[in-house]
Amino acid sequence: MTTTPTANNGVNTEVLLGARKALADEPAGAQFTWRATNEWLHATHTKATVKSYFGLGAEQGHKVESTFEMDHPETFGEEDNAVTPVEYVLVGLGGCLSGGIAAVAQNRGIQLRSVKATIEGDMDILGILGADPDVRNGFNNVRVNYEIDADASEEDIEALVAQSQKRSAVFDIVTNPTNVTVSVTKA
């Protein structure tokens, strides 16, 4: 493996490795709850807000509150004010894997010059339309294709992607069953 102690991908691995050790010693602090709120705007157009989460034993706030709008395309008879929720899943997967690649590269001393991913998800919409009860609602196949320029061999770059995939929370969420509870309260 190529190691370059001067690699600077902008990832503070010293803090990450320190957190790994500290939380291994105090595992209660490693219990995080990520959250988003979502508000209906009109038709299928909604807005999500992310501003806080629970972690390290206390409520935490992001430096900046972020909002994300979602809608459905004109193909579905909607206004197409924003991307679809399923496209956000692809965005999350790409963001998690690419961030992981940067962190792993930093830790291994590999200088990145560019990391570009194309994420595609195949879906038979007969499922979400209720037209065929045997067709699942979600993706039936997701592909992530990376183009990475780095000071490393092709084998080392493949190892970066493999390690990122191994540690990616979103990859895990997308590829493994997760318990989801939906409750409702009349406002």
TrEMBL record:
A Pfam entry, by short name: OsmC
Domain of life (superkingdom): Bacteria
Q: InterPro entries annotated for this entry?
A: KH_dom-like_a/b (IPR015946), OsmC/Ohr_fam (IPR003718), OsmC/Ohr_hydroprdx_reductase (IPR052924), OsmC/Ohrsf (IPR036102)
Q: Which PANTHER family match?
A: HYDROPEROXIDE REDUCTASE (PTHR35368:SF1)
Task: Output this protein's name.
Answer: Putative OsmC-like protein
